[in-house]
Amino acid sequence: MRILTAALIGLIFGAGIALAGMINPAKILNFFDIAGSWDPSLAFVMAGALIVTAIGYRLVWQRKAPVLEAKFSLPTRRDLDPALIGGSALFGIGWGIAGFCPGGAIPALGLGKSDALLFVAAMLAGIWAMRAIRGLKN
């Protein structure tokens, strides 16, 4: 049931991203091009997501436990470590260069976009490399 629910939520998220046009890297890159052909549509998508998230959190935190779990699993760390800061910076740089984030690239795969395939392959290679580097440290 959990996998089916996760798949359904993922499909709804992907459909929303596609409907909003966020699988088009040009829209993302134009958002960052403030002095040129600026496109504010990404800001509207983000604002809508923040509103939905704020309402969702208010509703979820009124529950004693999640619907499909016995208890909430929350992160316990609150510090900003170099891995978090570096990973966030790499994410932002990659997003600004490619015009894709994972949320937009994965639905774009369904449309057979070759640039999305290249982005997802590079993303997976980066995940694998980071896991290998972390494995060497342990």
Automatic annotation (TrEMBL):
Keywords: Membrane, Transmembrane, Transmembrane helix. The chain crosses the membrane at residues 44-61, 82-110, 116-133. Pfam families: DUF6691 (PF20398). InterPro entries: DUF6691. This is YeeE/YedE family protein. The lineage of its organism: Bacteria, Pseudomonadati, Pseudomonadota, Alphaproteobacteria, Rhodobacterales.
